[in-house]
Design a protein that fits this description.
Layout (H helix, E strand, L loop, with lengths): L6 E2 L4 E6 L12 H4 L4 E8 L1 H11 L5 E3 L3 E3 L7 E4 L2 E3 L5 E2 L12 E3 L6 E2 L12 E3 L6 E4 L2 E4 L4 E4 L8 E3 L6 E2 L12 E4 L5 E2 L12 E4 L6 E2 L5 H6 L1 E5 L3 H6 L9 E4 L3
Parallel strand pairs: 2-3, 3-4, 3-5, 4-9, 8-10, 9-11, 14-16, 15-17, 16-18, 17-19, 18-20, 19-21, 21-22
Antiparallel strand pairs: 1-2, 6-7, 12-13, 13-14
């Protein structure tokens, strides 16, 4: 069963598709459309065959993808080779490893409402991705295009092309998810609220403009390999004065070279 709406223009093509059987998306999108459609909404079950096609389009001209009414299901062929005889496959209700990896034309993605979990590299190497959107998900929420879990306790992903010179993590966030800000080269300053307990692996890798890290936590948060060595050598880390010596002595934090203690507000 297919429902489609096509609006063609000199620069843009939009298409809406509904599939009833996983693995059949290719039947609804012609070869010409795969390289010309810029806005696509898909509903229905999608397996590895379908994701492989979406990835192909995401490397061509597809800029806006709405999967809010789609459901990711296990099955079909691999959508991405991992090397050494390993490959990535779809899993039920999950954006699994490297799901959108390398989709350079994508600017906006609306995730499926049914998705319960997201791999930390699902949006890696999407250099033009500006926003990750959520419509009616019970599991995730989007705030200004930045993805959180539904309780807003975990910051899951800030899109790589999100223009942020300065960002203050919202109060109540306890964890910065692995790779959360990875590759965001516009970010110059990040502020962590007192609620943060954990800053996870690679969460700020590739943030080459990062100059200031402000921590409001008097209790030192757990820090994994979250920052590049160059950032740890050059960035200013501003912490509560009463906790300055703790930050300087705790493992991983103690690799930063430039601490500044300030009185709490």
């Amino acid at each position: 069963m297919t429902c489609l709406l096509m609006a063609a223009g000199m620069w843009a093509q939009q298409k809406t598709v509904s599939v009833s059987e996983a693995g059949t998306l290719a039947n609804e999108i012609s070869a010409a459309e795969r390289s010309s459609v810029t806005s696509l909404k898909v509903s229905g079950p999608l397996n590895g065959n379908d994701v492989k096609l979406l990835r192909e389009m995401g490397k061509a001209s597809l800029a806006e993808l709405d999967l809010s009414d789609a459901k990711i299901v296990k099955g079909g062929e691999s959508y991405y080779p991992l090397g050494e005889d390993k490959s990535a496959y779809t899993e039920d209700d999950r954006l699994s490893t490297l799901f959108f990896y390398g989709c350079g034309s994508l600017r906006s993605v609306t995730i499926p409402n049914s998705v319960k979990s997201i791999s930390n590299d699902a949006f890696s190497s999407c250099p033009n991705l500006v926003e990750i959107k959520v419509k009616n998900s019970p599991f995730f929420v989007s705030v200004d295009g930045i993805l959180f879990n539904s309780e807003k306790e975990r910051l899951v992903r800030c899109p790589q092309a999100k223009k942020l010179e300065s960002y203050e993590v919202p109060r109540g966030v306890i964890e910065i998810y692995p790779s959360a800000f990875r590759g965001n080269t516009s970010l110059k300053s990040i502020t962590f609220p007192r609620s943060v307990w954990s800053i996870s692996d690679m969460s700020f890798y590739g943030c080459t403009s990062l100059q200031t890290i402000r921590c409001k936590m008097t209790r030192v948060a757990s820090l994994a390999e979250a920052f590049d060595a160059s950032t740890m050598n050059t960035a200013k880390v501003i912490v509560p004065k009463e906790a300055l010596e703790d930050y300087k002595s705790v493992n991983v934090w103690n690799r930063f070279k430039n601490f500044v203690g300030e009185e709490e507000e």
